[in-house]
Amino acid sequence: MRTRTLTVVTIAIGLSVSLAAADQLPTAFFGTWKLNTERSKADSGAPPKDQTLTIQRRGDGFGLTIDVDNGDGTRNRTTRNATLDGKDVTVDGITNPAVKEAYTKVDDRSFQRVVKVNGQVRNTLKFTIAPDGKTVTAVTTGTGADGKPFHATSLLDKQ
After folding, report:
1. What is the CATH number of the domain that holds 116?
2. I want to staple 110 with a disulfide (CB 3.0 to 4.6 A). Which of 31, 100, 102, 106 is the partner?
3. C-alpha dist (Å) from residue 99 to 92, 94, 95
4. For the whole prediction, is pTM greater than 0.85?
């Protein structure tokens, strides 16, 4: 009986660890990424002068920090802590408390961020890491504050 109980507990722990690991961000995403403005494009609006994305392990999930130089003399930094569980997280560094983000795993080389305002999906961004781990492609589709649809493809280089 004791052996059976020990076996059941061991299997339960193993399953919970493997399920948690399956939900985690691939390690190749961790690090600092810099926007390659020459290889990035957007349907509308001026691209930022400079943008740096930093992804770090934080507890059972990850932290994501984005530093942007808008090219007009303004800079901003946003941070958030997330897991790939699809639950809404708060973004620090923005003025609208109604903005939430949710992250999910797409496949072994991709994850997705869904941005919501007052519960309504505003845009979706899919991050895909190249097989060599040197670049990330971020494809954004959504609706701007003006209600018009937009699409952007950003390439980020590993630093």
Report:
1. 2.40.128.20
2. 106
3. 10, 8, 9
4. no
